[in-house]
Amino acid sequence: MTDPIQQCPADADVIAARLKEYLGADYFAGAIKNVYALINHIAFLEKQVANLKDTIARMQKGNAND
Question: pTM here?
């Protein structure tokens, strides 16, 4: 079994897929739905942070050219 602390952010997709399978089996449905929603929210926030970093880098590059 993989240590969750050692997992990469890309592993969130694997975890989400596994949880989706469990949802279909109605296995701890309430808790799994909450964890699944949390993982999706984290993935959304990671994308937002990446977009913000790109925007900051573009702005800094634009200021350096002035």
Answer: 0.55
Quote the CA–CA distance of 11 and 53 in Å, as a whole number: 22
DSSP per-residue codes, the chain:
---GGG--TTHHHHHHHHHHHHHHTTSSHHHHHHHHHHHHHHHHHHHHHHHHHHHHHHHHHHHHH-
Confidence class for position 66, pLDDT limits 50, 70, 90: low
Closest CA to 23 of 11, 39, 44, 5: 39
pLDDT score for 44: 93
